[in-house]
Each structure stands twice: as C-alpha cells, then as structure tokens.
Protein 1
Amino acid sequence: MTRILIAEDEERISAFVAKGLESAGYQTLVVDDGSDALETALSGEIDLVLLDVGLPSLDGFEVLRSLRGQGSSIPVIMLTARTSTRDTVDGLDAGANDYVAKPFKFDELLARVRSRLRDPVTVGTMTVGHGDVSLDVLARRATVGGREVDLSAREFALAEEFLRHAGQVLSREQLLSRVWGMDFDPTSNVVDVYVRYLRAKLGPAHIVTVRGAGYRWE
Ligand code: CA
C-alpha cells in the first residue's frame, strides 16, 4: 500500500485531495502543520509528500530543507501559489522533486503523483529529455544538442510539459491549464505565441501543429 502524506493547512484542499487519492487507491494521511509534516515524513511510513508552501510552525521550504538535510530522499511535490515563480524556483532549489501550482485540477496532481512514484529520482538531478533536447528540471537548464539555451520560466514550463508527454497531442486548453493555471479562454493566443518562442529556441521541427487538436512533441 502506498502512503501519501498531505501537508496542507487549508482543509478544503486537503479533504479534496485526500478523497481523490483514496479513490485512486492510495492511503493518505493529512497534517496541517509544518513540524508535524516533518516528523511524519521522517517516520519511514510515507512514500510521497504533498507539501504546501504556506504552513504554520515551519513553512514548506523549511520542512523540505530539513528533510533533505537529514538525508531523506522521499519524493516531495510542492503545492505552490500559481502566481509565484519564486516559490517554484525556491522549492526546486530546496530539493523538491516536482511542484503543482494552485489552483490545480485533481487529474493534474494525480499524474504528477503517479510519475513521481514511478521514477526513481535522485535528489539533485532531474532531467527530462527527448531527441536532442534535454531539460534539467532542478537547475532549470535547457540544452539542445548539448548547447545551453536560455528559456524564460514559462517557456521552460511549456517545454517540460511537452517533453513529459512526448508523442501525445496536447490541446491548447490542456496547456493553458497546466502551464498557466488558467481556464480556457478561446480568445487567448498565448499558447500559440509561446509555441513560436520554443520553436525559435529549440528548433522548428520538435513541436508539430495538429490541426484542430493542438500540438504534439515529435
Ligand atoms: Ca497554506
């Protein structure tokens, strides 16, 4: 049985996440405070931690640093504020394996949980790659054919989403929701604009337009 610790002080969110994870077959444990989160995560009974950034007594970053400082390599997914790129970068620097920005859709969280439980991830390196493109998610470094390319935070997040789903068609709606955390706005062309940026930086052939459906990483 896989046990997931949910460290979240907003009861509305923790209850919703716990319910969803339990129906997906996981056992859950909820704490609403940072020191409890740290103690429980170190107990050896937990397989993965969902860690809110804003927690009482110790915040999410302090919990994470303390965990990693004590040698724990337990997978940690940070729950960050959507508007704060700072949270994301700080969380990854502190040794988080992944992050999900609030508000999130449950399916998105579940996909992250599944993939973090599946990959044997070593703390300090986390690379997703396909063809000649490689992203070091912890260091936020992108390379094409070994050459470093400068991507903005949003470009990086979009490239990461494509690489994690290489070969699959991703609709504009999915990309907008996962990368920007926004509901679909049919008048917005932000996805198309950023796809153009990525094509210019990573090479024109990687992202294919699938007419009427979205984009696919080849
Ligand atoms: Ca909170």
Note: The mean pLDDT is 88.
Protein 2
Amino acid sequence: MKTAICPGSFDPMTLGHLNIVRRTSRIFDRVVVLVLVNANKRSPMFTIDERVDMIKRIVAPFENVEVASYDGLLAEFARRFERPVIVKGLRAGTDFENEFQMSQINKTINPELETMFLTSSVKYTFLSSSVVRELASYGSDLSEFVPREIVDEVLAKARGGSYNG
Ligand code: PNS
C-alpha cells in the first residue's frame, strides 16, 4: 500500500490545499493529511485540534484520506509508514526555494523519505491561508477560497465569535 503524506499548517485549509489532497488521493492508495506546526508562523487563527476537526469534515467524502496532527518533525512522523511519500503543492515563484529546502532537510533526517510536488491549479496559484485570514478579517465572502464546510466557521473566528455549526 503506497501512502502519501500531505503536510501543512492548514490555518485554515484552502480550496488550493483541497485540490492537492484530492489529486493525491487519485494517485496513492492512502493519504494522510497531516497538521503540523510551522515554527515561522506565529499567532495561528485556529488551534491544531480545530484544524484537524475542520479538515476531517472537509475530506469525509474521500474514502482513502485520513487526518492526523503531530507535534514534532515531519521526517520523524513519516517513520510510522513504509516508504511514504510527502506530497505538497507548488504555487508560482516563491514556494520553490522554501519547499526545496524543507525536502532536502527531511531527506537528510530520514533518507528513505521522498518528496513530490504537484503544481497548483492555475485557479489557486495565488491563494494562501494568510490571504484567507486577511479576507476573513474584513468579513469578505470566502466561498471562492475555502471549502464550503468551513466558510462560516472561518468568518466567525475572524469576528472573534464562537461557531456552533
Ligand atoms: O503549510 P505550511 O506552513 O507551508 O507547511 C509547513 C510545514 C508545517 C509542513 C513545516 O513547517 C513542517 O514540516 N513543520 C513540522 C516541523 C518540521 O518537520 N520542521 C522541519 C522542516 S525543514
């Protein structure tokens, strides 16, 4: 069974992330969407548990996709699986250098670990969680940017209110 790990901070998951997860699920037998801490991103909007909960609802229709979180190194988490492949989306320009560095470091820590990149769909090339957080802070319609299951939740969080589903 070939397993892919789709790692990220997913704060929150965007339609661009979901596009990558969907395409990965068509290539691999099993996909683990893994919520991790990005040490460079401070003051997250959602807790790790909230992100896992949201992603579980979003990917519920996909039979071979599961969701996990890990409070450590991606390369260490990956040891739980037999020859897993990390799959990430690559957007225009700036992603490359950072992703290239991370893949090299991950392979140094865990030499069996390969990283593959799927080029992002043109529609989502300029979409990011930080753009979503900014739009949400202005109360903007998010339906073009995040999965419908979490549109209201992200807006409620930005307003500082609680969300009751
Ligand atoms: O969605 P992001 O923020 O671009 O994802 C980056 C992430 C979370 C995958 C990366 O920061 C990560 O792997 N964090 C876990 C800790 C780790 O393994 N760090 C070493 C990476 S060089």
Note: The longest helix spans residues 95-109.
